[in-house]
Amino acid sequence: MVKAIFFDIDGTLVSFHTHTIPESTRQALAAVREKGIKVFIATGRPKVLMQKAVGNLPFDGYITLNGAYCFTSDHKDIYKGSIPEDDIERLILFNKQHPELPFVFVHDDTWFITGVNEAVQEVADLIKIDIPPVQPIEYARGKEILQIMGYFKADDDNKVFSGILKHCEPMRWYPLFADIIARGNSKSHGIDKVIAHYGIDLKETMAFGDGGNDIPMLRHVGTGIAMGNATLEVQNAADYVTTSVDEDGILNALKHFGVL
Fold first, then answer.
1. Of 102, 70, 259, 78, whose CA–CA distance to 180 is shortest?
2. Rounded Cα distance, 221 and 223, in Å
3. Using one digit for the tens of pLDDT, what is the confidence trace for 165-182?
4. Average pLDDT over residues 85-91
5. Of 234 and 174, which is predicted with more confidence?
6. Residues of 184-217 as b/e, b for ≥16 C-beta within 10 angstroms?
7. Considering only CA atoms, which of 162, 152, 154, 68 is closest in space to residue 115?
8. How far apart are CA 87 and CA 101, in angstroms?
């Protein structure tokens, strides 16, 4: 029996084409909650971008920043996993040598970026978000940084994570940048924190996702479902592949498993 379902946002709940949540998904979420099943967000987005993505749709809790920050529907903290300050200091020195690489820092309920280039604009256009305010990288000092977004490609991962962000790891769902979180955090780790809070067994969980950062979650839950628009790597990590977000994928999967 499914007691909790976790949903990624971009490419899962929200279409990359229409930038909206399909009506079939809205109806499915309402029907699931009417049955007493809890529904949760599990996203790489920060809290500051939640309202714009899902509007006033009700959820029982939120896993944000790829598991680095989890909280309840009434905004009570369940878990925070911040990036160590020594990693921040090394990144400040690195960015001084490579100012052409923008970095976003997420702290508290807000964020900032060190600069704007074509990659930043492309990602903002892709998911229809505002670009964060620009601040010098030193602004990150003394703050509880929960996630960094680095606008560099995977070819640079070894250099960045072996010598600079030593206690962090990347979560990629788009080639132009990486969500960067403290090592040990992930959507699956966030799920463990959330279900412990609500007294739900892992076997009673289901999750939907489409991006590379969803792979740990899809492998971890009782039933992992990849959207039809997911990459082959994500589909291979799932227990089931449904249709795309634009083809009623969430509703179809819930019907397939007898949840609805």
1. 102
2. 5
3. 999 999 888 899 999 999
4. 97
5. 234
6. ebbbbbbbbbbbeeeebeeebbbbbbbbbbbbbb
7. 152
8. 17
Domains delineated in the chain: 4-80+185-256 (3.40.50.1000), 85-182 (3.30.1240.10)
179 is catalytic: no
Crossing angle for the helix pair 249-256 and 23-34, nearest 10 degrees? Answer: 40
pLDDT of residue 6: 98
Percent of the chain's residues with pLDDT above 70: 100
pLDDT score recorded for residue 33: 97
pLDDT value of residue 17: 93
Whether the CB-CB separation of 54 and 131 falls below 8 Å is answered with no
Token pair listed for 260:
């609805």
Distance CA 194, CA 63 (A): 8
| Residue range 211-226, pLDDT digits in tens | 999 999 999 999 999 9
Indicate which residue of 8, 87, 210, 214 is catalytic: 8
Give me the pLDDT at residue 120, please: 96
Instruction: Record the pTM.
Output: 0.88
Could you list the beta-strand ranges (E) of the chain.
Answer: 4-7, 38-42, 61-64, 69-72, 77-80, 103-107, 110-113, 145-150, 168-174, 177-182, 205-209, 223-226, 240-241
Is the CB of residue 43 less than 8 Å from the CB of residue 76?
no
